[in-house]
Specification:
Elements (H helix, E strand, L loop, with lengths): L1 H10 L1 H11 L4 H13 L4 E2 L11 E4 L5 E4 L10 H14 L5 H7 L7 H9 L10 H21 L15 H4 L12 H12 L12 H5 L5 H7 L13 E15 L5 E8 L4 E6 L1 H7 L8 E9 L7 E9 L12 H7 L2 E6 L5 H8 L3 E4 L1 E5 L4 E4 L9 H7 L9 E5 H5 L1
Parallel strand pairs: 1-3, 6-8, 9-11
Antiparallel strand pairs: 2-3, 4-5, 4-7, 5-6, 7-8, 9-13, 11-12
Length: 414
């Protein structure tokens, strides 16, 4: 079974991940963890769509020929299987829906009610059809009411004599969207989270992704503790560093009258409840604002009959990692460096100097002048030092003072 599973995951990764997410439908943290795994592996995960989705997660090919996982409509709040079946049946019989007006005209309102349509819009199921979600939200009620009135007026094919020659309801309605723009990006993501339990098209922490991946723990790892034979109790008291965004913060008075903090930390895969005892809360309460990215250092509280909690000791702001330096040649990088270290030596001394240099690796370029050969060489990148002044002092036991020189352009500019 293990070999078969590994074979499927290797040769059919997109289909495998779709099946994995279908196996945990209803468990939002697990689904969120698999979505982040897919993104890390380059597998696109697409939001639900009235024209593309079925009940569950499925696999489709995008316009670039790449396989993607498409979220099912049954994962949307207030959308039951009967509604999904009605949407898919109409789509199969008469073709894709053009927009929200076309959808509301064609759909069976007994199976797909107003609340269901609102949830579909909020989840992004009409994205890509032209109008924005905010525009769809402004018109769908009118479109649904027009559809309901038309059905009432045409029950069993009966038309009033007074209606003969009058324009019908669908002809009177024009497919006009108000010029209202779109919701802010963060609000769009929050809508998706509210309706599906997960962020699909993006995440508020996307700019912090690299920083979060370097931390010692995340909510997916905490959730997996419960699946261990000991229920994760062996990790009770473990010191961890966790980061994310504060989705909820509130304080409560203790019996002694001091204030204690309660916070919900949300990262890329889920949430964890965090407690800040009075002294910690008093020290850091200024950093504890809702929707604020933070770093928590604390120790885990793992109990058999409770969800794992984080008892916070230190609070720091969470900042994105700096953009990586451009991949430029070492020669060009050395030219741009304001500080350089020049060493004069014999070739037979290079090995000893190399050993000393590699004890303090850094970004300061090192040049080696070989008088006997009449050349000056740029040392390999892993020979560059962290601090020129410190390395100058360290090398005094290997090279004479007069054979070493520091060039600092910053001093000349000052």
């Amino acid at each position: 079974m293990a070999v078969q599973t590994a074979w499927l995951k290797y040769y059919y990764p997109t289909e495998f991940m779709a099946a994995m997410m279908n196996s945990v439908v209803g468990n939002a943290p697990k689904v969120a963890g698999y979505i982040q795994y897919c993104r890390d592996k380059g597998i696109p995960v697409l939001p639900p769509s009235v024209n593309k989705s079925d009940r569950q997660f499925t696999v489709e090919t995008n316009g670039e020929g790449k396989k993607c996982v498409r979220m099912g409509m049954s994962g949307v709040k207030n959308v039951g299987n009967a509604a999904v079946d009605a949407i898919v049946r109409e789509r199969t019989l008469t073709g894709p829906y053009r927009d929200v007006f076309d959808f509301c005209r064609r759909i069976d309102s007994e199976q797909v009610n107003k609340r269901c349509v609102e949830s579909l819009i909020m989840a992004g199921c009409f994205d890509g059809m032209g109008p924005t979600r905010l525009q769809c939200m402004r018109v769908f009620l009118t479109a649904m009411e027009a559809n309901a009135n038309k059905r009432k007026n045409n029950v069993a094919g009966q038309i009033s004599l007074f209606d003969i020659g009058q324009p019908t309801a669908d002809l009177m309605e024009e497919d006009v969207y108000p010029d209202v723009g779109e919701y802010p990006h963060r609000q769009l993501l929050e809508m998706e989270k509210e309706m599906t339990g997960v962020y699909v098209s993006g995440h508020p922490l996307d700019e912090y992704r690299d920083a979060l991946e370097k931390l010692s723990a995340n909510t997916a790892w905490v959730l997996d503790l419960k699946e261990r034979p000991d229920g994760g109790v062996g990790e009770d008291g473990k010191i961890v560093l966790m980061g994310g965004i504060l989705s909820e913060v509130h304080a409560k008075a203790t019996k002694k009258g001091s204030m204690m903090g309660f916070a919900t930390l949300e990262d890329l895969t889920g949430q964890i409840e965090c407690l800040l005892f009075p002294k910690i809360y008093e020290r850091y309460h200024g950093l504890l604002q809702q929707d604020t990215p933070v770093l928590f250092t604390g120790h885990l509280s793992v109990r058999e009959d409770e969800d794992t909690k984080l008892l916070v000791d230190v609070v720091e702001p969470l900042v994105p990692l700096p953009a990586p330096e451009p991949d430029i040649p070492d020669v060009e990088r050395a030219k741009r460096s304001p500080v350089k270290l020049y060493l004069r030596m014999k070739r037979e001394q290079m090995e000893e100097v190399k050993t000393v240099l590699q004890r303090q690796p850094g970004t300061v370029p090192v040049y080696m002048n070989l008088p006997a050969e009449g050349v000056t060489l740029l040392a390999p990148r892993d020979w560059w030092c962290e601090d020129a002044e410190d390395m100058y002092a360290t090398l005094m036991t290997t090279l004479p003072r007069e054979d070493m020189r520091i060039v600092d352009k910053r001093e000349a500019q000052a």
